[in-house]
Amino acid sequence: MNFEHLLSVKDLEKSTLKALIAQAIDLKKNPQKYQQALAGKSIAMIFEKPSLRTRVSFDVGIQKMGGHAVYLDQQNGAFGKRESVKDFAQNLSCWVDGIVARVFSQQSLIELAEYGSVPVVNALSDLYHPCQALADFQALTEQFGDVQGRTLAYVGDGNNVTHSLMLTAAILGVNMVIVTPPGHGVDGQVVVDSQKLCEKSGATLTISNDVSALKGVDAIYADTWISMGDETPFERIAEKFMPYQVNRQMMTDSGAQYFMHCQPAHREEEVTADVLDGDQSIILQQAENRMHAQNAVLLALLK
């Protein structure tokens, strides 16, 4: 595996993605092998946005491998305002071995990587959520074995999670079906990037506003209808999105074996409680895998 940062999965080769997933699975099965893998390493964790899974999974994961995590919130002012991102990156690079950042703007990550001298990991930005996608495809690999040729569907609002799922699927040869309400589709450049990657892997990308496009998929993935910080009244959101709610009927009609969600989830909104809490749901497997997938990334970057 040869990469300097993880800003987006689109920068990774198929062999690297598969190796990261294999490493994550081994970390999960054999944690004792890695108890000192990051001994003596310190990692700064920058959080502009609230978090449960990302913060805890990185913090605990680093500790489990003998490393030290330094949590930095924005109590001293917005990132890049009180102090430039350049100065932030250069100063942090004097002390830590890596930077994990959950930010509002992808540009902040680009600048951290450009001006710092240590690896940078995207823990979520406005455009991408690569660590989530790695954990998700680890879960699919655990369920199916080889995921190539399988079909994953995403239903709901096109967002950063959708983008990373699309790119990862395209690289790994997984067919992707995106179903969104009109006006809530995915970023056009990400579509172009994914299509190019599909040409290389042989995967297909289907983008639709019609839930009938879900027929024959292996798994259905949903995310919250309202992104963090969006103040649109729920009634207006529900009017558009309720026809796209993942429920028992959708699971049956599509033939999907598994339901996936990056969480936080809202029962009876984007998904019904019987699906979210049911036997087909693998949401806690995804959540657990966040730690293992992220640890695999840190191992690869910090060697």
Automatic annotation (TrEMBL):
Subcellular location: Cytoplasm
Record-stated family: Belongs to the aspartate/ornithine carbamoyltransferase superfamily. OTCase family.
Any GO CC annotation of this UniProt entry: cytoplasm
Primary residence: cytoplasm
Catalytic reaction equation(s): carbamoyl phosphate + L-ornithine = L-citrulline + phosphate + H(+)
Annotated keywords: Cytoplasm, Transferase
Transmembrane segments: none
PANTHER family attached to this UniProt entry: ORNITHINE CARBAMOYLTRANSFERASE, MITOCHONDRIAL (PTHR45753), ORNITHINE TRANSCARBAMYLASE, MITOCHONDRIAL (PTHR45753:SF3)
Residue numbers binding L-ornithine: N160, D223, S227, M228
SUPFAM superfamilies (alphabetical): Aspartate/ornithine carbamoyltransferase
Pathway assigned to this chain's UniProt record: Amino-acid biosynthesis; L-arginine biosynthesis; L-arginine from L-ornithine and carbamoyl phosphate: step 1/3
Name used for this protein in its record: Ornithine carbamoyltransferase
Domain Aspartate/ornithine carbamoyltransferase carbamoyl-P binding, chain residue ranges per copy: 5-142
Top-rank EC class of the record's enzyme: transferase
GO biological process: citrulline biosynthetic process; L-arginine biosynthetic process via ornithine
Binding-site positions, carbamoyl phosphate: R102, H129, P130, C131, Q132, R290
Enzyme Commission number(s): 2.1.3.3
Occurrences of domain Aspartate/ornithine carbamoyltransferase Asp/Orn-binding (ranges): 148-300
Pfam families per record: OTCace, OTCace_N
